[in-house]
């Protein structure tokens, strides 16, 4: 488990004064990805049109370029506005396998300061049941600090 207090402070320092969303996403994806060996793919899918997600900054192997809200774990997070904590991706109906090695996944909605959904943040692991509620809560706080700044 990363030291999320240290990670949050590092990301806060690296992104201080920055308001460009792509730059913020690239920094968050990089810092989170390299903070823990459980994280084998780490990145964003952006809301680019109604009911449509398109890939954003990420770390790891190639990711599929677009995901409608009706599909996958990312689409479920975008559609419901709720964190998707998936212990076994093979048990998730409609899981989209960008890599056959993925065993578990954590996807969080990303909101801006107005409370609008702007993206989802997706982390894949090759380890089964790799994520916990503690990961979700800590990452939720980091995403709010970076993307929902007043
Ligand atoms: N697994 C995701 C798709 C994105 S790739 O994992 C990077 C999903 O089911 O939505």
**Annotated CATH topology:** Beta-Lactamase
Total strand count, please?
A: 6
**Small-molecule binders:** methionine sulfoxide
CATH class: Alpha Beta
The proportion of residues forming helix, as a percent range, comes to 25-40%
For the record, the count of structural domains works out to: 1
Distance N terminus to C terminus? 29 Å
Order of helices and strands: HHEEEHEEEH
Indicate the structural class.
alpha+beta
Extract low-pLDDT stretches.
Answer: none
**For the largest beta sheet, what order do the strands appear in spatially?**
3-2-1-6-5-4
Mean pLDDT value: 97
SS strand fraction: 25-35%
Give the overall form.
globular
Computed CA radius of gyration, to the nearest angstrom = 14 Å
Biggest pleated sheet: 6 strands, antiparallel
User: Which architecture per CATH?
Assistant: 2-Layer Sandwich
CATH superfamily: GAF domain
């Amino acid at each position: 488990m990363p030291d999320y207090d240290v990670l949050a402070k590092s990301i806060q320092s690296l992104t201080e004064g920055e308001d460009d969303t792509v730059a913020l996403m690239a920094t968050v994806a990089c810092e989170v990805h390299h903070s823990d060996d459980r994280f084998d793919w780490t990145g964003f899918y952006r809301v680019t049109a109604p009911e449509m997600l398109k890939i954003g900054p990420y770390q790891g192997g190639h990711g599929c370029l677009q995901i409608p809200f009706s599909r996958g774990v990312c689409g479920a997070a975008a559609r419901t506005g709720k964190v998707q904590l998936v212990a076994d991706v093979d048990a998730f109906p409609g899981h989209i396998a960008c890599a056959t090695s993925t065993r578990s996944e954590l996807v969080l909605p990303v909101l801006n300061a107005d409370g609008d959904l702007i993206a989802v943040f997706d982390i894949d692991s090759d380890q089964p049941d790799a994520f916990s509620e503690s990961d979700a809560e800590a990452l939720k706080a980091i995403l709010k600090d970076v993307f929902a700044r007043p």
